[in-house]
Amino acid sequence: MADLSTNYMGLFLRNPLVASASPLSHTVDGVRRLADAGVGAVVMHSLFEEEVFAEAERQAELAEAGSESFAESLSYFTDVPGVEAGGRRYLSVLERAAPVVDVPVIASLNGTTPKGWTRYAHQMESAGASAIELNVYSSPPGADTSGREVEERHVEVLALVKSAVSVPVAVKLSPYYSSVGEVALRLAEAGADALVLFNRFLHSDIDPEALEVVAGLGLSSPSEGRLARTWVALLRQRLDIGLAASTGVESGDDVAKYLLAGADVVMTASALLRHGLGHAEILLDGLRDWMGRKGFASVSRLRGLLSVPPGPDQAGEERAGYVAALRAANANLVGPW
Ligand SMILES: Cc1cc2nc3c(=O)[nH]c(=O)nc-3n(C[C@H](O)[C@H](O)[C@H](O)COP(=O)(O)O)c2cc1C
Fold first, then answer.
1. Range(s) of the domain holding residue 170
2. Model pTM greater than 0.70?
3. Which pLDDT tens digit goes with each residue over 109-124?
4. For 28-47, what is each residue's pLDDT tens digit?
5. Does the Cβ of 219 fall within 6 Å of ligand 1?
6. Which of 107, 177, 273, 278 has the largest count of CB atoms under 10 Å?
7. Would you say the CB of residue 20 lies under 6 angstroms from ligand 1?
């Protein structure tokens, strides 16, 4: 039987498949069902500080009107000064879920203020989070914000959270920096225990019939994994921190490809939302089958086999791959169109 165990930022995982942040982990039962589905760890959906504030305002209004409708959430973490009800509900799910599952539960935080980042990170650790993932995404910055300012903010947030907790801290990145590699190296230098490549974003669209702007977060397709895989392969030998791959995992082969590129763990959200939690076992069986066919006895033997060696040639390798891909595409072009 192949050994699927892996180490992710110091956490021992029974296998490298991780349920990434999604609505599937909104409840204690959701977290339990994800763990029962066989994954190696569960990342909870993000706690968004701005939503917590919005809910606090709603509650204050209800309290003024004498409503008891938030009684349940208020009963948790009542002794935590300065933590609003929305935050208390998240912490309560975490506090109840972490001890009843046999895999690490990673909390995810999207803060807006320095106090929010540190306070909630600290409370997440107290509530039993094995690690904290920083969802540093914020709505697109104004046109006059420089890329450097955005990146500086990430480094500052990381330093703040690192100073507030002792559990490992991962940073979940977007693919939209002018230099993803440099941002990754800076965050590693600033003390990130792991990087997650990549987040998925809410993109609004326009409904031409209704003449309306519509918001949406579509599920991914496997071909979208190529970008994350390229960056995992380029960064693996440059970084000695954890690397999590997140985007477009649909089959056991997709998991294998990310591991060959150098990921310590491979995350999935869209496939579980699309096919149900039973798909986790299909992904793991696919990985085991592939390892059997290729003669790999353990994940540690195959991790990073196809990562890119560091050095001045990295750009050359990428370019060579790009040119080869264009040549192959051109050779296949047979009109008429
Ligand atoms: C419906 C939905 C909700 C998500 N919610 C969160 C979230 O709360 N926090 C976060 O960091 N990522 C969130 N994500 C991003 C996923 O965790 C994941 O990184 C991304 O979807 C790429 O992986 P996938 O291709 O397997 O879906 C969400 C994704 C989806 C589809």
1. 6-332
2. yes
3. 999 899 999 999 999 9
4. 999 999 999 999 999 999 99
5. yes
6. 107
7. yes
